[in-house]
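Input for the complex:
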Amino acid sequence: MPDQPRVALFVTCLVDLFRPSVGLAAVELLEAAGCRVELPEPQICCGQPAFNSGDRQTTENLARQFIPALEPYDYVVAPSGSCAGILRTHLGELFDSDPDWKMRATALAARCHELVSFLVDVRGMRTVPGRLTARVTYHDSCSGLRELGVKAQPRRLLAAVSGLELVEMARSETCCGFGGTFCVKYPEISTRMVDDKLADARATGAELLLAGDLGCLLNMAGRLARKGERMAVRHVAEVLAGRLEDPPIAAVREAG
Amino acid sequence: MEPQSLAFRERAAAALQDPHLATALRRLESGWQRGRARAAAALPEFEALRDAAVAIKDHVLENLDLYLEIFERRFTATGGVLHWARDAAEARAIALRICREAGARTVTKSKSMVAEEIGLNAFLEANGLTVVETDLGEYIVQLAGEVPSHLVGPAVHMTRERIAELFARHHGGPLKRDSAELVAEARRVLRRRYLEADVGITGANFLVAETGSIVTVTNEGNAELTQGLPRVHLCIASLEKVVPTVEDAFTLLRLLARSATGQEFSAYTTFLTGPRRRSERDGPEAMHLILLDNGRSAMVGGPFREMLRCIRCGACMNHCPVYLAAGGHAYGWVYVGPMGSVLTPQFAGIERTWTLPTASTFCGRCQEVCPVRIPLPKLMRLWREEAHRRRLPPPVARYGLAAWAFLAERPALYRFVTRLAVAGLGLLGRRHGRFSRLPLAGGWTVSRDLPAPSGTTFRALWKARARSRS
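Predicted:
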């Protein structure tokens, strides 16, 4: 592998549309870890909404679209455990009736990573640019945790953020109730789950709630906003990169 | 039992309003969930044991015909009578015939999910028999006129207060508050019933091919009294319960209680090998075993084959945040929680149950704790694919997905549309940073605000960044 690997940023549709600052934070962190970052096109979506809705055809169509764009790179990195989970764990499960594409998908899958685990496990990152004096708590998003083993890596890097105190919440590994389309198909259950999650987060006394997946973050921030609660919500990459210019998720952007 | 699974959302929403249920289900988390974690941590070879269990189960399933034939020979040699049942109706008819031939009026029954699967109680009662459940949880559920809401704890949805009221109503006497008093009362009532029964019906946790034994596991000893006291013992089990050796049964038993309740071993584990022999003083005079297929043999070698590894420990539901919020009755049929969301479509048909596999966030907790490593999310996704192929989800979901797919497959159009949408929403949401209501987002905004996009896409920022650097 070259000293300065070429990394394709798979920015994910939610980051692209809802929270571009997470993408910028990811680029800064990757560059700090000695990578050359590019944004190859076309890349729209990893296909997760289709894949989890049982629509394999659309999933494969989307994969045919992004696989050629991503193939030339040493690594593909996404600032999301669930999108990276699709790329790394499930891409090779597609194309059962198309061996050529299956081979390409499987080869690519092995080079796909979630951002924070890539920084720590592949690039050996130990220090980060971010500094923040705050008491924070961290939610382990399900796909990153169980499909990719993202658990120690974010904690390791958060410990390197000067001023930051991490307080673990009870049941940090319990789902927040987002689950993609689950949260709109079963809003009642989803709401109970996110309320349980937020109760655990609140009990830590943290002022800032972090996670590595924008879906979960939008869910938790959206529920906190609806209840008028003050706890701030951010993607972990924003804190690690020290990119905190944007107000926290769902917070007021400008006065008056 | 007709599945009510299509109403999962409504049933779950109603269940969420029940404070008793919430209290009852919280006990699962503090009890069995923590119990499993402690038991697994205390056993250094726990993960290796899981691998061994997977190997045993997969081996049996790949050679199911062989082991079933061996089991049949050995079981018959012990003096037992084996009955093969293709489906639920056949199994029910055989069970009724055995009860009639025994001249039975009362039958006792220890816990059997297969009996629930074939609707045995209702059938026997409709044919004039009195059926008495002897597992405490099953007995409570029977008194309440309900169905089990959990594989291992049929009455986990009930609080002690509700059980006390139920007992006072059915048994008479003052309201008892103490658990020990309630258990003593049930024991008093049930002891009489054991002695009255003509036939005792049990399930089986394992069937051992090398010895022809039936293995049952309980914490109350009720299976032993059910199979040992009446003249006739009738066991109902499904095909995949067979294991090659006693050793294999023990490997699985070491996982079963730890995964289910966190116990190292259940209080009673019985290997029952044949009816009473001439030299013996107790045991049933006759032993019948109904081996039920009900679609299982068709699962062998198919996409859902891993589900046949299931040993019915209930760990998947104990750890499922959806189950712990909605409770078992929301699932609308016999098998509940993640394992039920895979099995119920198998038994009751995907048309009447397609909602169940969608009732998961795919958090993966079930697979993480499953002692036999069943990839439950993957199997639920397979059912979603089947439902999608048959166009079972409502039009709004299908057209929404199709509209999104149409855009996502056309990058230029997607970028144009999303740039406009993000700019528009960014502008509208500038003031508050979020929306409390938005067209087409009702499912989200019913209980959450939608965080507003910042107004520019990452793509636009990236391009600007590239320009400023060149």
